[in-house]
């Protein structure tokens, strides 16, 4: 499993989870629309590590950026997310 670090917390990504799914599960508020790499709304800066895409995203992705909606980490990653985790309701 890959370890994901943000400014808010560290967590383990579950098997088969995209980065976006893991961020949502842990309460992070991340912008998204398509979940398929078309729109680029979830564009995030990757500080350390590497990711892969099953299909090359159609949205523009600059060097050092990733689309968490459709990528999977290749090992541990550090993301530059300013969003603080949203408090989960019981």
From TrEMBL:
Signal peptide: none
One MF term in the entry's GO annotations: 2 iron, 2 sulfur cluster binding
Top-level taxon of the source organism: Bacteria
Domain 2Fe-2S ferredoxin-type: 1-85
Pfam families associated with the record: Fer2
Gene3D superfamilies registered for this protein in UniProt: 3.10.20.30
PANTHER family, per database record: PROTEIN YIIM (PTHR30212:SF2)
UniProt-recorded name of the protein: Ferredoxin
Organism this protein belongs to: Oceanisphaera psychrotolerans
